[in-house]
Amino acid sequence: xxxxxxxxxxxxxxxxxxxxxxxxxxxxxxxxxxxxxxxxxxxxxxxxxxxxxxxxxxxxxxxxxxxxxxxxxxxxxxxxxxxxxxxxxxxxxxxxxxxxxxxxxxxxxxxxxxxxxxxxxxxxxxxxxxxxxxxxxxxxxxxxxxxxxxxxxxxxxxxxxxxxxxxxxxxxxxxxxxxxxxxxxxxxxxxxxxxxxxxxxxxxxxxxxxxxxxxxxxxxxxxxxxxxxxxxxxxxxx
Length: 238
Prior knowledge:
Layout lengths: L2 E6 L3 H11 L5 E7 L2 H10 L4 E4 L8 H7 L5 E6 L5 H6 L4 E4 L4 H24 L10 E6 L2 E6 L3 E7 L2 E6 L3 E4 L3 H5 L9 E3 L2 E3 L6 E3 L2 E4 L2 E4 L2 H13 L1
């Protein structure tokens, strides 16, 4: 398992300590080092991050206030010289609270906690997968007064359209009166991940991944912030 990490600290020396400790653990990948929480918000819009090393006392936006702005935050290990923030940090469900200066052994213990949580999430994700309701080769989809048999291998992507979905296949487009969530339960999630509140894609049909978009044929589809981490974890597991 590779763990993608973000360091947020306005002290270069503190950044370097974490970076040096991380170099001793091959599964930790430092995606970016940020000097402020404001800078980190922009990074999270473009990068998949599993774990944040977060300082508290920073200009403009404190680490605690930054955490409160995140709807679905990655795992967080707080790194600070201020013990008085500990209770607030744990109320926000952080993994651990490291008091500066901290030794490698203490850093490693905190990372192990994060690793255990991520592994448990992966196990739960696969255990909770919805099983294909037919024989995993096709689904039946109602459209107007007709019912279409749709081979899974023909699906390119599925798009939400209000109370309807548009199923784009290799040779046609089918409009069906149902929610994207409903059709999501009919599809093997590892083959058909949801990448946005409005899109499910066929993983095998991706031609290109660029930034926060995937290309399928001549269409660039967005990867939503709330789906990015899970999507990138799926890509890395293949």
